[in-house]
Automatic annotation (TrEMBL):
Keywords: Cytoplasm, Heme biosynthesis, Iron, Lyase, Metal-binding, Porphyrin biosynthesis. Its EC number is 4.98.1.1. It catalyses: Fe-coproporphyrin III + 2 H(+) = coproporphyrin III + Fe(2+); heme b + 2 H(+) = protoporphyrin IX + Fe(2+). Fe(2+) binds at residues 189, 292. InterPro entries: Ferrochelatase, Ferrochelatase_C, Ferrochelatase_N. Pathway: Porphyrin-containing compound metabolism; protoheme biosynthesis; protoheme from protoporphyrin-IX: step 1/1. One of its GO terms (biological process) is heme biosynthetic process. It comes from Puniceicoccus vermicola. Pfam families: Ferrochelatase. It is found in: Cytoplasm. This is Ferrochelatase. The keyword ATP-binding does not apply. SUPFAM superfamilies: Chelatase. It is an enzyme of class 4 (lyase).
Amino acid sequence: MARKPGVLLLNLGSPASTDVSDVRKYLGEFLMDGRVLDAPKPIRWIVVNGFILPFRPKNSAAAYKRVWTDEGSPLIVKSEKVRELLDCEDCPTFLAMNYGEPSIDQEIEKIKKQGITDLFLMPQYPHYAMSSYETVVAKTMETLREKAPEIQTKLLQPFYQDEDYLGALETVIRPYLEKKPDLVLFSFHGIPERHLRKTDPSHAHCLESGDCCENCHPAHATCYRHQCFTTAHKTAARLGLARDQYHISFQSRLGRDPWLTPYTDKTLEELPGKGVKRLLVICPAFVTDCLETLEEISMEGKDSFLESGGEFFVQIPCLNDHPAWIDVLRNRIDSWRNQTVASATPSA
Ligand SMILES: C=CC1=C(C)c2cc3[nH]c(cc4nc(cc5[nH]c(cc1n2)c(C)c5CCC(=O)O)C(CCC(=O)O)=C4C)c(C)c3C=C
Ligand SMILES: [Fe+2]
Ligand SMILES: [Fe+2]
């Protein structure tokens, strides 16, 4: 039977609009995900509906309004551009979001209708976290099992130390070093410390000592903290940055539980007092600019750094549709296609 390959890009998703009601619907779907808020379902329901949804949607909607474009959510618009650039007739590319639209469900329907036999799943998350990579993969695999079990799949692994991804980051960051920063801050999306312990298969390694996530350990196949450190250290090495020329922090904390530290918001307030006046910030956990980079860092973070005595602040854009990143994705797709065709061709 003739094989028909296709690609499915996966990301987190945005509300349908900046209306408070749409933001509430989106946050409800997002936060009722048991891999995001991992309390038992009835408790999660009470926390989400009793304590978060009555208040947060109004503030989040205001934040989304600050970054929303005429075409829609930056995350969706930029992801769609990437999809268009990768799309081709003999290997169509689809885009689905874990929450909101385009949904995984509707895209898998489309994929099925187009007769795709082999699907390359490409989660746009460089690092493994149960609240990002794991949840989008779990939902996609469940949907495929239910709607299209006949489709063969291949899954892109977390690419936090892939030399091509690091090379693309280097290409994007390097021109900004001409601005002579005092420091480069690598700010990653945070996660609760509890999640790190849960995804440690040994249940005895991560966060057990200060440098546990810096060392080699089998637990690191699913250790978000180790993977973020690795991305930062390897990118810094490519850029020729010494250890005192860059800093690593974690942003976007939600709730009162301890999350990975140091926190980006506190770091931005403290750095000017430590003599850092000129700062570059890069957010490598996001391949696509979104609310958390464009509002939390470029607006809120910048204001806070400058108000604390900083003099120069630039947030380096995410990889988005940069040609260096599109090349990386296209190469991954091409090598998968070559392997798929080769494995489908009977040997003589
Ligand atoms: C980079 C990977 C991400 C991880 C890990 C992650 C964990 C995580 N997030 C929340 C809560 C929220 N995140 C929100 C927005 C958001 N988060 C990511 C990525 C990761 N989240 C992205 C790409 C975005 C932006 C979406 C966009 O539309 O631009 C939000 C919504 C906005 C807000 O109200 O602040 C919430 C809420 C938790 C609790 C969590 C880990 C447990
Ligand atoms: Fe998030
Ligand atoms: Fe670890």
